[in-house]
Amino acid sequence: AQSVTQLGSHVSVSEGALVLLRCNYSSSVPPYLFWYVQYPNQGLQLLLKYTTGATLVKGINGFEAEFKKSETSFHLTKPSAHMSDAAEYFCAVSSGSARQLTFGSGTQLTVLP
Amino acid sequence: GAGVSQSPSNKVTEKGKDVELRCDPISGHTALYWYRQSLGQGLEFLIYFQGNSAPDKSGLPSDRFSAERTGGSVSTLTIQRTQQEDSAVYLCASSFPGLAQETQYFGPGTRLLVL
Q1: What is the arithmetic mean of pLDDT over B14-33?
Q2: Between the CA of residue B22 and those of A42, A46, B10, B15, B68, what are the distances in Å?
Q3: CA-CA 20 to 30 A from A2: which of A29, A69, A106, B90?
Q4: Which chain B residues contact residue A34 at CB under 8 A?
Q5: pLDDT above 60 for B1
Q6: CB contact under 8 A, A43 and B100
Q7: Using a CB-CB distance cutoff of 8 angstroms, which residues of chain B are in contact with residue A44?
Q8: Residue A62, SS3?
Q9: Average model confidence (pLDDT) for chain A?
């Protein structure tokens, strides 16, 4: 079985400040980890993913995430928030035995001017 | 190229009626997934099609829900005798070749409201 926990359903940051969205996972087999972003009334768009290899993954729009097996974490960061980053962010996990994505409950990011 | 498309974008129906939701995956994508997004339950997996293999129906919440995929392309999700708790956004995604590490590309969703 696999699961994802996102700490903080709502996060607010000032424009230009560091963005940190937390994600912890549980998986009995090596996981594949994803971050998706959802803008209002739109589908999900992939930001980045970890499959194998380098544990620091860079994605679109300046986001990156680091896979830490010992901490079972895959936190999403961005050095400097932009107003356009305001959206809902979902962490998800899949594995070789479960190809569907299991999502966390999402984090709504608000960027304050 | 064209992304995943879904129709209708919005659907309002009365309790007890049947509804059909359509998904057109990205051309050439062999895997197709349906998910449901609701306020109370978040994003939930419903069903997964991979090529000509039998679908993985393990996420379907009840026997009122069914889905088919014709010709390995278009998929239809059918909800019979709709209930108010079926109100949600239904998202379709596709990928190639359908391995767990592949990116799933999502459509814009169908927003279903059951009155």
Answers
A1: 96
A2: 16, 22, 12, 20, 10
A3: B90
A4: 103
A5: no
A6: no
A7: 91, 93, 106
A8: helix
A9: 94
* DSSP labels, B68-93: EESTTS-EEEEE-S--GGG-EEEEEE
Residue-wise pLDDT tens digits, B52-92:
889 999 999 999 999 999 887 999 999 999 999 999 999 99
> What contacts A70, CB < 8 A, 6 or more positions away?
none
Tell me the three-class secondary structure of B98-111, residue by residue: CCCCCCCEECCCEE
Query: For residue B38, which phi and psi values (nearest 5 degrees)?
Result: -135, 160
Contacts of A28 in chain B (CB under 8 A): none
Amino acid letter for position A7: L
Per-residue pLDDT reduced to its tens digit, A54-90:
999 999 999 999 999 999 999 999 999 999 999 999 9
Instruction: With beta carbons less than 8 A apart as the criterion, state whether B110 and A42 touch.
Output: no
Give how far the C-alpha of residue A96 lies from the chain's centroid of Cα atoms, to the nearest Å.
20
Q: Smallest Cα–Cα separation from B95: which of A4, A66, A49?
A: A49
How far is the alpha carbon of B82 from chain A, nearest alpha carbon, in Å?
Answer: 23
